[in-house]
Fold this protein.
Amino acid sequence: MPAAPGGPRLLLRRLREAMAEPVSPQARLDRIVTLIAANVIAEVCSVYVLSDDSTLELFATEGLNREAVHLTRMRSDEGLVGLIAKTAEPLSLSDAQSHPSFSYRPETGEEAYHAFLGVPLLRAGNTLGVLVVQNKTYRVYSEEEIEALQTTAMVLAEMIASGELQALAPGTGPVARRAVSQRGVALADGIGLGHVVLHEPRIVVKQLIAENVDREVERLELAIGEVRSAIDDLVERGDSIGTGESREVLETVRMFAHDKGWLRRMREAVQSGLTAEAAVERVQSDNRARMMRQSDPYLRDRLHDLDDLANRLLRTLIGHEGNGDRVLPENAILVARSMGPAALLDYDRTALRGVVLEEGGPTSHIAIVARALGIPAVGEITNATALCDAGDAIIVDGATGEIQVRPGPEIEAAYGEMVRVRAKRQEQYRALRDLPAVTRDGVAIGLQLNAGLLIDLTHLAETGADGIGLFRTELQFMVAQRMPSAAEQQTLYEAVFAATGDLPVTVRTLDIGGDKILPYMPALEEENPALGWRAIRIGLDRPALLRVQLRALLRAAAGRPLKIMFPMVATVDEFTRAKAIVEREKAHLRRHGHPLPSDCRLGVMVEVPSLLFQIDEIARAADFLSVGSNDLMQFLFAVDRENRRVANRFDTLSVPALRAFRLIAERAAAAGCPATVCGEIGGKPLEAMALIGLGFRHLSMSPAAIGPVKAMVLGLDASAIAALIDAEMARAGDGETLRPALTAFAKAHGVPI
Ligand code: PEP
Ligand code: MG
């Protein structure tokens, strides 16, 4: 292939004319391959399109046998074309037939050609097909020729993505519109059906081919200059508030903004005849393709930074239209790379049906907020933002962590049915709302809510819960941009007490550290954060923080009863010291004439196993105990509660776990100290049934669990379950789980679990 007569600019101009001609899609595609072949002096030019059945179909050719068009199909992992689709990289060979991946298709008449150059048709990093040129001679294609073909490929990719070619291959849709199912991690339960709304709308480049290359070069340089100085400003101001970006990220972005290789590639793309924005997109698309295939998380993050930079450039070139519009269409499913809790709260909740994130683990702040809002959410969906287009149909399954993009009718119907079943069940639970939670043999069970944000309190009336059994105060700190002031803390607690009225509220003091990080507090490098400087340990070592919180609480609860409990207490002495701080604060308020709570009770979370061996002493010292089973089980079995690899290694219904729960229930009762369970275990009907059998009479749980647990309580005979557990625990050994025996009991006695 000697130097092209007109070069890529001329080709792009011709392509623009071809795109504008009022002809059929097939005629247009045929014209395009002819133009490409003529321009690059190749004997063959062919386009293969990836279809939704994962085959690559020959859509047009100049030079090969035209009869083979729409007949020749290859698996997406077959032949050289398949290899290009898989790697999303260009492939240039002087002797194609000697390549191990070469696959001979007699119908095409391909055997006469030796030199081969193929490039992927990429859009937003997704491979939509492959463009190939071939020559009879054994020749080596130059870097410029490869670049030029990639630029041309971009125009074809847009044509495929527009759906224009769909009619050419009945029965298969081009891959851009293919149904995709992907699994990440479940963040917030529930099923949402709706349409994609991109949190940061992708910028659509409409004008691909330049009318005036010099003008486009100028536009690109201006935009690069503008973006660079905007980033310099941000770095120099050194404040991250309002942008949400940390300094470190900005520094990296700044480095990329000066990256010579990146700038050169964009400049070359403009020189070849693309508009400035198309040049940015062309380089961005290659980058995205690399990002999708990158498994090293550090490198993937860097490619993400580069992607952000390209978006900034595009926004500068095209303007900001379409951005910042928080009004949602009906049944919106938000798709984002990542999102802060504040951004989620900005959206109209009545239209929001789900959230899909590329990042975000189950303990991320956004997950906590989504759960509080009752919005199904899924995280860790690789490349979610590139996978879907705005308006695509999508289903979020917050129970399994799956998403279905552009689902087929059967999938949609199956999920629709699931939603109806769930709604019906909710209806049944609502009917139980005003019934007292009393077992069949007359034992009253207190069912309370776990909460942490003001929005959680709306669930009190909805569920008919008896109060708040655990108010996690750290959530206010975690969603804030900076440390909440004493006044802000007091305002929140006042609002909580106002919303709960006469119902009891148990407030837990700050439980930070471990996995609960405050963005504005310097992060500590700890080998084992779960066993590190956290919760009450910080409170006792830095009493100022604890004192401010206690004072805010005592003032907010003036004239009403208040229950305060301390997290992660490991010794009786720690509780005694915490109690002394409360007494000091009470004395201080009294001295200054502030009214105090009418009754102030101080409790301890039982979540460190050492308390099991001081259970009598702690039950005598505390006004109440609350079992934090999430942490208690983590420490009892030495199993990291966030590590999915070990999460299923033990059962909370196994004999050792049940012995720990029984010990707490029995000794607390003997000391006349009320004991509650507030970990996740209390919200699962089967587990809650076991806890009642062990002697617990108060459980605190997430709002969605109240209905199912109440239904279980109403169908249960407390003395029968106690007898079963006694017998089974006496019989079972070897750390055996009672789950099968408990399940069989529920079934035999008609207890809904
Ligand atoms: C627990 O550990 O069970 C608990 C309720 O506290 P958290 O989940 O907030 O650690
Ligand atoms: Mg805990």
In short: The chain has a mean pLDDT of 88. The longest helix spans residues 213-237. The radius of gyration is 32 Å. Residues 567, 607, 628, 630-631 surround magnesium ion (ligand 2) (CB under 6 Å).
